[in-house]
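User: quick one, fold this
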Amino acid sequence: MKKISISAIILLVSLLSSAQKQTIETTKIDVDFNKNIGKMYPFWAFFGADEPNYAYMKDGKKLLSELSAMSPVPVYFRAHNLLTSGHDTLNLKWGSTNVYTEDAKGNPVYDWTIVDKIFDTYLQRGVKPLAQFSFMPEALSTKPQPYEHHWQPGMPYDKVYTGWTYPPKDYKKWADLVYEWVKHSVTRYGKTEVESWYWELWNEPNIGYWSGTVQEYCKLYDYTADAAKRALPTIKMGGPETTGPSWSKASEFLKIFLKHCVADTNYVTGKIGSPLDFISFHAKGSPKIVDGHVQMNMGTQLRDISEGFKIVTSFPTLKKLPIIIGESDPEGCAACGMKTNPQNAYRNGTMYSSYTAASFARKYALADYFNANLLGAVSWSFEFENQPYFYGFRDLATNGIDKPVLNVFRMFGLMSGSRAEVKGNQNYTFSMVRDSSVRGKNADIDALASKDNRSAAIMLWHYHDDDVQAKNAIIDLNLKGLPAKTVNLFHYRIDNENSNAYEVWKKMGSPENPTNEQIAVLEKAGQLTLLTSPIYLKTTNGELKLNISLPRQGVSLLKLDW
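Assistant:
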């Protein structure tokens, strides 16, 4: 038998080790809790919907309560159609309050019953309004007919743009409506409460939601802001809620509006400028079907945010104002289900949750880069009452069953204090994702970390724009700066087996009318769950090393308490 030298054995072991590393590539992520890179401000605690009347429906009330319970700060809710005529009709992309009508002589008649019902529901659950002056009441519209639309998924989107999109036939009557609504709100809810809300004018006035010109919008803003400030001088008033600034026409509209607020003659007062307390615009991604699977485009959404921050911070007198990204989503139509729009098939499963984790982390980075005052990023996702289970709407819950994406926000709710420095050998920088999205063979395997007085948290994601199967990511996590000798580790997970009611529903056979017993199982499966039981771990000189296996499109939250 031939003898093998020691050096040959060492070489053989080395080759085997090298081959194993090529088979299972390890991602290294270092977190240094001694390095504070900014506040862990919960700008994610903003949500919204086209349909305001869902708020006081059975599942709407349940979801509002859940949103409030998971957030360390008050959740804000933005809704359209708060001034639209009609009696709380429940069509998709529609809603109504019938606040304003006129008598036979053309005198205003105000009825706050339904809008109060909406706001009462918010406040009873610890949610605050991001109140929207929209849309035009039928009696005030310069072209009222046709008024109410009856849009359904699969129909052309422009079918929603009817008589409610037009400027008022009488700007003074519009201003009186604004004044009376704010005064009524102060009387009903108290000055201090209403001062804590944000109020805005309209939605996406640079496209079909507004059938006037940019100057007519500026005129309407002047009348609206003046009336609101007369009713409550300390009210927080903003706009213009334009579409994504990376689109040239949207960028132009935003710039014209901001210039008007700074340097143009006010249509009401005749003075220079108009009051502006916060600035808002939208940011959307653009998924499509490629080779039979969904391919996301996070870069499109981040370019909207980047360009919006760039525009706002270019105005010296406005650059420190709060910014609310009034809709910040993977694409643009919440009510377009995956059956009519197959590119939206990402919405029920874990792709939506991993996209949310990865994209919100980059919003922090973009705000840091531009030194922008990011107050909120509204997820235009709520729920659709009495619709089929898991129809593929962009929502947080379906018939009272929470989707995986809602559990990402529950994870965010467990992060507090300051953000800590994260470095890795396979992470994408915010500029890489913004400019090129997440394509090619390398996934986005990265983390967002926070540290508070008695706890720390690390959110990990394994994201790729292409919704295709891949091997688990093996992550070597090195934590530094932990101020305790022993920590209690809680490992929360969102993947196909955890915190995922959709996969459980499919295993049930995708029942269209689940039994009460099945609903109870689904409700439990929709909650954020631990991957393993909590465990106490000892640190070494403030350091802790962990090894994590994370599936593609999975999200983990490691919560450390001491």
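User: anything notable?
Assistant: The longest strand covers residues 26-39.
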